[in-house]
Write a structure and sequence with these properties.
Length: 117
């Protein structure tokens, strides 16, 4: 929860500073910057959620198997070692994505409510 609050405060500060450089009013610029930051956080959190879930691991494994079956060199190496050669896997297990998604949703609703004020 502390990370979400920190992200929200950072987003408010960036939006406040960015509102001085916008050509509309300061309030409109503030709401626009806040909305764009919330969408950025939601897209980043969603992308990390999909990658962390391991959805693409099975797809990559299937492509490696197809390539190893069609490649003569890879087929020879597989016969000699008895297994497929594995590429190193990048692990996102230590990454906490919930604060990113929670702060993105909170900022989205705050900017949505602020737009009607």
């Amino acid at each position: 929860m502390k990370r979400s609050i920190k992200l929200i405060l950072i987003a408010f500060i960036i939006s406040f500073v960015g509102s001085f450089f916008s050509e509309g009013g300061q309030w409109v610029g503030f709401v626009n910057f806040l909305f764009f930051i919330s969408i950025l956080l939601l897209m980043l959190g969603g992308t990390l959620f999909v990658l962390k879930g391991g959805m693409f691991d099975g797809i990559f494994y299937s492509f490696r198997r197809i390539y190893s079956r069609t490649s003569k060199i890879e087929n020879y190496v597989s016969e000699q070692t008895g297994e497929l050669q594995n590429t190193p896997k990048i692990s996102l297990s230590g990454l906490s994505i919930h604060p990113i998604i929670i702060s993105g949703v909170a900022l989205f609703f705050i900017s949505f409510i602020a737009a009607y004020m």
